Queue: 3 jobs
Job 1
Amino acid sequence: MMPSELENDYWVTYWTRNKITKNDDLQYQVTRTVNNIPIDPQKWQFTLNEIERTINLSPSDNLLDLCAGKLNHRTSIPLSCATFGTSVC
């Protein structure tokens, strides 16, 4: 078996058998945690504010979110530009 195949098997197993996928908390599902506890709403809002401030998008921009996972960022930031997201496994 090639190293890339082993790596792919690891992630397939991780995301299909791990208890995180069965949790209702989106932060927990994407392992955005501190000591296995989902980050609180204030930390999440701070993260979103920093992303929005840093990228400073305008309506004529296009945003491509690679490895978008559950689309938490795209759906949580009120963007005026066109957004596209994908999650590659």
Job 2
Amino acid sequence: MAKEVPQLGFDGNEPNYKDHWKGMPSYEQGNAALPDSTLHVHFATKEDRAAFMKLIGQIINPETRYIWHPKSDKAVLKDKRYVDVPEAEDDSPENDGREYVDTEDGDLEI
């Protein structure tokens, strides 16, 4: 007979995610991906849609589900990956796991 594996959260107790997420990197989305407002626009004719496209400078076809205005380029993520960086020994910017470059005026840039 197989050993029963308890299901997190289904035993009536709230799971302690902090125990399961030890060592995971922190992440903050911020509001970068959230729109300030959303507007649904309906077009009575193809000509009306064409006039609107000309006005905003973007292409909208019958399959278009949404647009960003001003136009936002799609992020290319297929060449991105997460890498493990060693933990910093102190809180100085030089030891936060990112690469910094000294500028001509002596400041640090990422």
Job 3
Amino acid sequence: MSTRCQIRFEEEWEWDGKPHKQIAQIYRHSDGYPDGVNGVVADVREFLKWYEGEPMPRQGDISYACADFIYFLKKRIAEHFADDPYGKGWEKIGHGIENPNEGIHGDEEYLYIVTYKDGEWHIKVSGHNTFPRFDSEDTAQAFEKAEWEFEGTVEEAYEKYVVGKEEEEE
């Protein structure tokens, strides 16, 4: 069974004295849990180490970070299965762009919000199934109604969810 999730990339800023907010959102079909080396927190951290070596997008371009995260994950999958005839094409599935105005599908188990503020990357991690799901009329408000079990920097999240759990997965 897959652990599905939605990951939002958000950025807020002011321009001409007016607040602005941009949201880009991803659906992830598998490995949507926060824990361990194959979870979302570890993937976000690994992506950011790669991404920060590149020029940072200008303000209001968080959608580039979101798109690059999907590229990073799909590239890694393709490389992993490069010599495996049964793995051919796996990079084409598993991640998709979502419309943040439409909420979530309802079968997700976790939600995440990744933000860049004050020169540092932050992440929010929902509790397991702590938001409106399935046929609820509130799935459009899932991110707003979620109970967040963690809010902090990506490095703090990595310490909480990944460090010390590497051996458990081997």
